[in-house]
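Cross-check.
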Amino acid sequence: MKKLIHILLLLVLPAVFFTGLHKYKDALGEYYLGRNYDPSYAYLINSLNLAQFKGYGVGLISHPGTPVQEIGAVVLLITHSMKSGNTDIVTDVFENPEYYLNKICSTFLFLISTAIFLLGSAVYLKLKSITTALFFQLTPFSFYSEDIYFQLTNVSVEPLLVFTALLLIASIILFLNKADSEKHNLNYAVVFGILCGLGMSVKISFFPVMIIPFLMLKKFRLKGVLILSSVISFLIFIYPAFSSHNVNEFILWVRDLVTHSGKYGTGTENLVDTSSYLNNVRIIFSKNLVFTFTYISALIICIMQLTEKYKLKIRSNRYFILLPGIFLAMTFQILIVAKHFSLYYMIPAYIFSIPGLYALNSVLLSVFPDLIITKKGKYTYYSVTVILIIVYSVIQIRMINKDRKQSAVARNEARKIISALESEFKNSIVISSYECSSREFALYLGSSYGGTRYNSYISLVKEKYPKDIFFNRWNNTFYKEWNQDYVKDLLIKENKFIFQGVSDDVALKFMDYIREFTNKPNVVNRKVLSGIDRDAVYEITLDPGNQ
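Predicted model, tokenized:
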């Protein structure tokens, strides 16, 4: 009976994660609303390529993110096979992209929830403590930020990074509590390698995590097995989506990340932009206090173990071996992320905060056993720990709920704008730009990453939305898929059309461009709709005298 109760307890946090993230996704709204569609629609289209089994090459390899496309392809095939009707899979995905994206999202959340349960089960199996198991299950709850939770509900690489890291942590716990035999060590070296290869095939910046199992394996032969199995695993996972062209493109992209100071390999050819680097480091630490505490404490323990007074006590603790690896992995992650900064890039390091705290606790009790030698001391120590965890959790929950409500308001505003565009301006030419809420632009953006099926998919978008044109606000011109002379003649003929931008600044740049593009200096605009987050909509008139 006791075992059954413990199993049920281990199911609580996975269920909370799955349900909570679904509610968060519901607050964000459809994937075609604003920023939601990047990169979800691109991954949807590339999953569609793999699902057709015809050697269609993918067009999105930047992360590289191949496992996202592979799992997406499986979900598309299973979901499509279960639907009634004779519609082919390409047509069905283009007609119902949101349906398929939600299925992929649910699959990712289910995988993470399963990994949370497996982690708790592994800890409970080896440590025989339900409270310790539940503490480890807090791992994906310990690094909240709006940006990170947004990424976990997106069809992107971050959900699979969390899934892989959770399995790696479970494997590490099993390894540290195993029977010490050569066969077991070899098996774990292979398992660690497979998971590290999977993580790097999801996102190359996962590689600092590999330091942790590398330092845990004592023999050079086992370290070699780890590296070899990681390389083989990486190549196997990326193989279905890579061609010689993609490999060259990926290598150039990684090179630019190293040699350029801007995001995505852009900017000047500097290793580091010193004006923003230190500020990014500050944000990394200030946005996650659990991570900061773990990082600083791990550094202190690593220094203490160099002294004669504490060396034996610290090094004799089986969990100490985790701390140097976690500290170094976190340090490398900070160095990388501060260069090309977004907070969710820190997920591979953030996720080891809870295991790090457990290792710190174990080492601390080895060094200072008198802390809990008495019943009163034990009670005080664990009471303070529980209170701190509860207070932190309450603060996190309040922040999540606040952000969720704000997201829901922005979602409703975006839906109203789309509804108004479809009812009040259904006969107008609509020009949309990046990050505005638009079914049409979301599908176009995904199709533009269509790889070898690019031309076919773009043709489908044009056929499906003949009156929609898309504006590249980065280059301040129309996207290359639309013939510029055709667009110019069409706009002059219509005289009046709709522009859907992100902000007034984008609209002003568009107005300047359209005056030059059409040679109509008297162009005027009127804002007809506006959301609280983005999605400003303008009615543009080229020649007011011809109305």
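Residues 450 and 456 are 9 Å apart (CA to CA). The chain has a mean pLDDT of 86. Passed to J.P. for a second look.
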